[in-house]
Amino acid sequence: MILGKKLHIAILNIIFIVGLFLINNPNIYGQETMEDATLSVDFSEEDGRKTVIATAVDQFGVPIEELDLYFYVKRTFSLLPIGDIFNSTDENGVVEVQFPDDLPGDTEGNIILVVKIIESDLYNDLSLEITKNWGIPAQIDQAEEKRSLWAAAANAPITLVIAVSGMILVIWFIIFYIIFVLFKISKITPIKT
Amino acid sequence: MRKYNGNLQKFETRREKDLLGHLITTSLKYKVWIAFLLLIIAFGMFGYYRQIKYGLIVTAMRDYTSWGIYISNFVFFVAISLVGSLFSSILKLNKNEWARPLTRVSEIIAVAAIICAAVIIIVDMGRPDRFFYVIKYLRIQSPIIWDVIIISTYLVISFLLLFISVLPDLALCRDRLIEIPKWKKRLYRITAINWNNDPKQMAMLKKVSTILAISVLPVAFAIHTITSWLFATTWRPGWDSTNLGPYFVSGAFMAGAAVIIVAMYFMRTELKLKAYITESHFDKMGKLLVLLSLVYLYFNINEYLGPAFKMVGVEGEHITELFVGKYAPMYWFVQLGGLILPIILLTFKNLRKPIPIAIISIFVILGAWFKRFLIVIPSLQHPYLPIQGVDESYLHYNPTWEEWAITLSSFAWLLLIITVLIKLFPIIPVQKAENISKKAVEKILQQ
């Protein structure tokens, strides 16, 4: 009786473990393992029209069709989306996005383009950053760099630096002179009679 | 512990006995006074402990009233510290011989006040552990940095002024005082820096004393002018004024003179110095206080007349609040009780006697303290940008008990430093080392 009960429990355990294995195996449910896609980005500029061309291929080099890619330009605090809401690849794995003409870049006009695969059913998330000089060169206000009352400590107005340092030097020179005289006073010994 | 009752101590002259006597004996009254001050300090320390533990939220300071009674107290202490320069420089260089016995007490008060001013600034900081960031990230463009520099400079100069004045008497204490504890003997020996009344030493001391008397004046003017610039460089009603520098400096001299009169009164009665601080001193100080108050009154009229005549916008609101609004009782107490009435009363000779003038001076001091409150707080409650969508508590400022405790304890510290210094050093010059002629100085120094 006892043996029969043990066997019964052992069989149940095996069924349970096999069940767990089956549940966690994506092949059973038609799910494939997430793959890594590869993105490549080209830029084309014709008649002043700037286009970003992204190509997605799988690990065997086969173009991926109908994959949503997300395009952004990095700004100071967040990513600015460009292109349409959804940008899906065609049968060649290619998607084209128009790049706006009016985006400010750094002082040399460089912007950072970010292309992403986000939450795809088949491919792992991916983020690609490319620097391109398609932005409008930023004009940094030189006033901030000049010596002024509101500038950083290193750019204090030179007249102020001279005036304040001059006054400090004069008064501390007097203080140290007085301390020096006091020191000399302490060295005078009484004349022995 | 050995008891010192002064029985063994012998003095050569009556002057020495009168002026050094209090350094030997300690009365019960003195001990009770010190204990009382320490009690207040302990209370304040508890308040500060809470402030450190919970942060500045224990104060009533919020986004708008970000400077409270700590800063008004700071301005008051800086003002008081100017009195050292009034006696050591202005009255000395003008050869007011009568003021000489009061020089040392003015220097002691100056030292105590400037120490308290420096400490109260740290108390006002939410993160006192970051105090040295002020130096580390120094921006020479900031008036706060100018203030830090000038306060430390004036602190050193005040110490030097006191030390140079007291030096010959330190040697006298070293040589004469027998019946004192060992640490005191050692203190006098070290601080007397081998002073032995040598003519050369006297000549050198006289020289540095004159140099210091001249150089302390611009520093003293600078310290309070810069304190006024902390306000004048900030765009707020009541502060946006070119008058603020002289207004602060003149107010400081007035408050300082009143503090000296009160100090004189207690020195005279407690240390039995009636022969040295005479009624004539009170009379002269009374006249000086009237003069200084008149100058301050002049700057007060300048300060309020312009904005009160125009009554423009927020500036007008500020003036209305002071003249007839919620700060009116304090404002009129300050202006009438602390300024105009003292001027009128002190023109009567009988009211320049020790007791009445001491009482009037206490009113002047109270007026001076509350005046600083009125300079700092109402202005902060009237920013040029409208106050919108803030907590109700941001609109008012009623100092919490922690703030009062800390402020009271800062006064206790001030009085403690003064009392201890008076107990350590002769308060009136015993030796007349400075009475050496200019010609003699030149002759000795040439040798």
How would you describe this structure to a colleague?
The complex is a heterodimer of chains A (193) and B (447). Chain A is built from two helices and seven strands. Chain A is of the alpha+beta class and 193 residues long. A four-stranded antiparallel β-sheet of chain A has the order 4-3-6-7, with no helix packed on it. In chain A, a hairpin with a 4-residue loop joins strand 3 and strand 4. Chain A starts with a helix and ends in a 6-residue tail after the last helix. In chain A, 11% of the residues are buried. The mean pLDDT of chain A is 86. Chain B has 447 residues and is mainly alpha-helical. Helices cover 71% and strands 0% of the residues of chain B. Chain B has 16 helices and no strands. In chain B, helix 10 packs antiparallel against helix 11 and helix 11 packs across helix 13. The model of chain B has no long low-confidence stretch (mean pLDDT 90). Chains A and B meet through helix 2 of A and helix 7 and helix 9 of B.
CATH architecture label name of chain B: Up-down Bundle
Shape category of chain A:
flat
Please mark out the parts of chain B with pLDDT under 50 across 5 or more consecutive residues, or reply none.
none
Largest sheet of chain A: 4 strands, antiparallel
Radius of gyration of chain A: 37 Å
Beta-strand proportion of chain B: under 5%
* Share of helix of chain B, binned: over 70%
Low-confidence stretches of chain A: none
Strand count of chain B: 0
Helix-strand topology string of chain A:
HEEEEEEEH
What string gives the helices and strands of chain B in order? Answer: HHHHHHHHHHHHHHHH
Strand order of the largest sheet of chain A: 4-3-6-7
CATH superfamily of chain B: Formate dehydrogenase/DMSO reductase domain
Mean pLDDT of chain B: 90
Structural class determined from secondary elements of chain B: mainly alpha
Instruction: Give the oligomeric state.
Output: heterodimer
User: Could you name the CATH class of chain B?
Assistant: Mainly Alpha
